[in-house]
Write a structure and sequence with these properties.
alpha/beta, 5 strands, 3 domains, Nucleotidyltransferase, domain 5
């Protein structure tokens, strides 16, 4: 991946000024700063100080150059050059619109000829002017400082390649073996809080377990999974398949707690755990997105599990998941 361009810093401009004064070539300056030669050439051309009244004062001075570059960047900001557009954007931010929504709406508006990218809005929000107005607090995800695009920790360290679903054994993929589960979280309306419902489904029998979580922290979710599955025989809880959500980063507790292996879907590929996704659609008939989960009792959740597990399924030859699950458990005990 190509390195994204970063503006020259004050210290880099100081080095350029010293080396330029010593008549060192632009190529050598570029090598010293690990920059492209064109960057140095453009910097000297744009920020070279010209003084017709005092020709002896002409030259490249790092303090002057840094000030010129800063002023130019500020001058080029659309929102600073157009106070009416700036006021309109701020009003939309205060109404709860995201920068992308503001930008997209401007493109549809026939009354406005302004074109503004969401990146420009973000830059203004986190600029000195935007911070003085505390605009960041109106964003859906509030941060004091803007996080660099590639600053996230690589999830490959959390979800190693050897646990990727492409490496899952064929006996699990074909549903020939009992004891392999899929798990997911059902999320509800934000305004009702962070409570959610975990859905856990055995792949061969389609037997379903549901339980409520009061938030999306990973360790409590894993503890609940262990509490529900640990009483089963080891061969009835051999593996679990998850997506790569942050709520599953504590998956190693499953291995330590009950010796259950974990597999993970590819990024942005929830269809790879289709059994639990299909089950979620069935559960949504009784728990739609607007449900206030904290008002759903444990007894109601157990009753819903019983309803799902006592319903005949065509894929099981019209047997129920409970009948299939019980038969496999009995076979393990014998």
């Amino acid at each position: 991946m190509a390195r994204s361009f970063v503006q020259l810093s004050f210290d880099e401009r100081r080095v350029i000024a010293r080396m330029y004064e010593k008549k060192i070539s632009q190529a050598e300056i570029a090598r010293t700063l690990h920059r492209d030669r064109s960057t140095i050439c453009r910097e000297l051309r744009r920020n070279f100080w010209h003084d017709r009244e005092v020709p002896i004062a002409e030259g490249y001075w790092h303090i002057t150059a840094h000030g010129m570059a800063t002023d130019r960047r500020r001058r080029y900001r659309k929102l600073l050059r157009d106070p009416h557009l700036c006021a309109a954007v701020i009003d939309r931010l205060k109404d709860g619109w995201s920068p992308e929504q503001i930008s997209g709406r401007l493109k549809l508006s026939s009354a406005s000829s302004a074109r503004l990218s969401h990146e420009t809005i973000y830059q203004y929000i986190y600029s000195k002017e935007g911070q003085d107005q505390q605009l960041a607090r109106h964003l859906p995800e509030r941060r004091r400082k803007r996080r660099p695009r590639y600053a996230r920790k690589p999830r490959s360290l959390v979800f190693p390649i050897e646990c990727a679903i492409r490496n899952r054994p064929e006996t699990i993929n074909s549903r020939n073996e009992f004891g392999h589960w899929e798990a997911d979280l059902m999320i509800f309306r934000k305004e009702h809080g962070a409570a959610n419902i975990a859905t856990v489904v055995e792949r061969k029998s389609r037997y379903t377990v549901l339980f409520r979580n009061n938030d999306r922290r990973s360790k409590p979710i894993m503890s609940q999974l262990i509490r529900h599955l640990a009483p089963l025989p080891a061969l009835a809880r051999q593996s679990l398949t998850f997506d790569r959500g942050l709520e599953f980063v504590s998956w190693r507790e499953l291995e330590h707690g009950m010796g259950t292996a974990a597999w993970f879907c590819d990024p942005q590929a929830p269809w790879q755990k289709g059994t639990v996704e299909n089950t979620n659609k069935r559960v949504r008939r009784y728990l739609p997105p607007e449900t206030i989960v904290l008002e759903v009792s444990s007894q109601e959740i157990r009753s819903l599990c019983d309803r799902l597990n006592d319903t005949p399924r065509k894929c099981l030859g019209f047997q129920t998941p409970k009948e299939m699950f019980s038969r496999h458990l009995l076979a393990l005990e014998q």
